[in-house]
Structure of Na(+)/H(+) antiporter NhaA:
Amino acid sequence: MAFLRSERVAAFLLLGAAAVALLIANGPAGPAARDFADAHLGVPGSPFDLSIAHWVTDGLLAIFFFLAAIELKHELTHGELNTPQKALVPTVAAIGGVVVPAGIFLLMVRDPALQDGWPIPTATDIAFALGVLALVGKSLPGRVRALLLALAVIDDLIAILIIAAFFTSDLQPLPLILAAPVVVAFGLLSKRLRGGRGMLLAVLLPLGVLAWVLVFLSGVHATIAGVALGLVMAGSRATPTRHALEPWSNGLILPVFAFFAALVVFPAVSVGQLSPVFWAIVVSLPVGKLLGITGGMVLAGRLAARASRQPVPFGDALVIAGLGGIGFTVSLLMNELAYAGNDEVAVEGTLAVMLGSLIAAVLGIALTLVQARRYARRAFTPSRPTSAR
């Protein structure tokens, strides 16, 4: 299972699962595969009657967000975000990487009925972006990976807030109120509970499931439960928990989600008939992220200079911005939530996310290779000998 911790392996599995899904959906087995995804699995005597695809989106993906929240908490306490000075650059860059793509999307999509998709190009896929960097950016300094990770974590936090604020329907306050003490109990017990893994599973797992159930019943997207649990979990428990679950997230949860999200049929329309949503996502992900993140880093660099901190080299900023346009996982989730009632636009949105992320990946790889060669040349350039006097 150790190989599943590799960022490169995680990226390949994500891309492979999406590619396989597209091939199946547009082949002879397509109807059967879509029927399987739409098949309902209900819990007798409960309001839980979801399709298999929705169990993946609402259930399995909550585990992914749980791990993302653990990583966010670690960065806030021990990592690249543990001081305001450290957090300045990735925070301003992440905000730029949200505002600019969203603005481009709204400029290109003028129909108010379709503008709910503005959050789709604002996300950065942690696993995919770091996987590409690990594949082609080995010679880059460690600060590039650290900044990309910090930016992606902040980006995920913003995505979580967007999901909670804009994709909550029919809010039921009582279950949400009841979920709060459950989450608090989860956090307190994770700090005070003694015993091995069996004891933790016996006590914390039921509390986690109960929190997920209550958040689901509240109308808030159930993945928010994973975020809350990850943020309150004691660090001493969170680190080994993340270590244990990471291979399952990389090797199963994310590929399964990518498979079901990409299980779409290519629309039988000409290029000119594609929705403005398609073109807005394809442009906003690679171009909007590149402009927004780079601009944010330049602005943050000027602020950092005033605070006597070294700004991020422009070449490094371009690498991070290029890779930051790989939306994929969270963008696919946003697309599903934004166009839940419009299957035709949702299909085009899914294809646009994959195409836009692919363009961003190619752009990011090119920028990474150029910057890596610059560092390699500097490393092998012999210093000039001083002249004898």
Observations:
- The chain has a mean pLDDT of 90.
